[in-house]
Amino acid sequence: MYFKKVLCTVSAVAMTAGVAQAADSLTIAIVNNGHMINMQTVAEAYTAETGVELKWVSLEEGVLREQVTSDTATGGGQYDIINIGMQEAPIWGAAGWIEPLNFGASYDVADILPAMRAGLSYEGQLYAAPFYGESSMVMYRKDLADAAGVTINDHDSWSRVKEAASAMHNPDAGVYGACLRGKPGWGDNMAFITTVVNSFGGAWFDADMRPALDTQMWADAVNFYVDLLGNYGPPGSEGNSFNEILALYNEGKCGLWIDATIAASFLSVDGVAYAQSPNAGNAVGANWLWAWAMAVPAGSPNAEAAMAFIEWATSKDYVQAVGNHPDFGWGSVPTGQRASTYAIPEFQAAAGFAAAEMAAIDSAAPAATALKPYIGVQFAAIPEFPEVGSAVAQEMAAALSGAKSVEDALADAQAAAVSIMEEAGY
Q1: What is the pTM of this model?
Q2: Alpha-carbon torsion 413, 419, 424, 426, what sign?
Q3: Partner of 184 for a Cys bridge, out of 219, 230, 281, 397, CB 3.0 to 4.6 A?
């Protein structure tokens, strides 16, 4: 019965799109997280209905970004569909690297959350469709916090968060107070570190787009991060990204975790509670905004078939397919992309994190401000940012591991960023 429902959904979407499947197969590059992995199972019904074989290339986040960027920029043609996000979509759309997306009326583009739609568009044209969207928030073990006699509140101060991490930290029992990203990458450790910097009143660039890593705000934020994770985090944190920390959390080894809201879909331990991201006096930019989205590289010979698949995989019907799937259910549907998902009674009943997630997404502030002259929360929406962010990420990982002092790491990071920006003509 389930697959019959999904096949009807696939047929309806394909008919609405008016697409004749010309491709025998599609090669899809995806990030190796839970929702994307689940899609491979759910999409078996798509292949059964359309005859289109789906070849999945599942890559770790940093590797995905490198390979997709290289292949798309050079027109390599390795992939028919690629996972990209808000940093790339408008820039690549403007450059003509990816195809504009136009779907049938039943797709209901207006149902996509405004923050996601805007972040994946260029001059009002959608260039990537959100498979799921996210902000960041605190996910913590309320049972451990209660036992330690501490509370964690929405928009808490960083000092209170450190107190809570200290109180819950019990390495002899295999519990670490704070599990945070440390693996180097502009979308890995720098995603979290940037929100900390923002909350301390710092920014990547000043009003003249000069790198600003030599400011006191960066020094204060990075010293706090290194101290918090160094004292109350698990060993080897400089190698931990989303998947590593998710595993630690589900093994009962983390007191608190500040990361993507989407993680809440995959937490299997009891006693989890949620709070809005902490700050050091500046709440603007203390929580990030991101979407893992699907796009079609320009010039793809299978563009028509690729867009038909994206239309199905990012539709309301796909959410229903996951919710009704015997292996997944309503607590596992991709979230943060469509307003209609949050009105589904079954989802509301299954997703205790939904209200906190939506509050985080609604409060994210990607627009340029007096403190930052660029669009983006945990990134800057300029072509040079991935190179800058990657260089700085290596220095921050060195500071976390103790290979460098925070002072030296920031000095080297500033020098690298200045060199990259000057070479780009800033």
Answers
A1: 0.93
A2: positive
A3: 397
